[in-house]
Specification:
Layout lengths: L4 E10 L5 E10 L7 E14 L2 E13 L4 E9 L2 H14 L2 E2 L11 E5 L2 E7 L6 E2 L2 H10 L4 E5 L5 H13 L4 H8 L1
Parallel strand pairs: 9-10
Antiparallel strand pairs: 1-2, 3-4, 4-5, 5-6, 7-8, 8-10
Helix pairs in contact: 2-3
């Protein structure tokens, strides 16, 4: 059930004359977990040439995040677009990783690499906004980062850009972790 969703509870009683009395209560249910954000970054049509002609299938790159420092990315493949998106989003939930946040930004400057993808990220003060494009923006929005400066220094391929952003987020360390390592 979604956050603040209402559920109807009914109770039936028999009256003395044999009629049924129905009482209804509306219960408001609060979800304990934060609401997940799912973003479809790319959908590609793939063609396989076989003896009888061509077979078309789809793959979808999906980012799932909780908006509080956790994000997951996965690729789903199927003969239909909706099934590919569903597969990718369920796989992304399983692959979720957490990263440290410093308020609404990241704790320090970091770079991430994946293949030819190269992403640079720098923390920004409140009010700056999310200065990012494409796959980088999708990952950071889903993860809950609100103020950051980014630059895509490598390929513009959305797959490599998204995975390079994940690599950069994995390299982030909180202030407490760094102090613990230095002791």
């Amino acid at each position: 059930m979604l956050k603040n969703q209402k559920q109807l509870k009914t109770a039936k009683e028999l009256n003395a004359d044999g009629s049924v009395k129905v009482e209804a209560e509306i219960l408001e249910i609060e979800a304990a977990l934060p609401e997940e954000k799912t973003v479809v970054v790319a959908i590609n049509r793939v063609t396989k040439v076989v003896k009888g002609g061509k077979r078309f299938s789809f793959n979808a790159l999906v980012v799932v995040g909780d908006g509080a420092g956790s994000v997951g990315v996965a690729l789903g493949k199927s003969n239909e677009v909706q099934v590919a998106i569903q597969k990718a989003s369920s796989a992304a939930r399983k692959e979720m990783m957490s990263f440290p946040l410093s308020g609404t930004t990241i704790p320090h400057e970091v770079e991430g690499h994946f293949g030819a993808g190269h992403v640079w990220m720098k923390p920004a003060v409140g009010g700056t906004g999310l200065i990012a494009g494409g796959g980088v923006r999708a990952v950071l929005e889903a993860g809950g980062v609100k103020n950051i400066l980014t630059k895509n220094l490598g390929t513009r391929n959305s797959f490599n850009t998204v995975y390079a952003t994940l690599d950069a987020l994995r390299r982030l360390r909180s202030r407490e972790e760094v102090l613990k390592m230095r002791r």
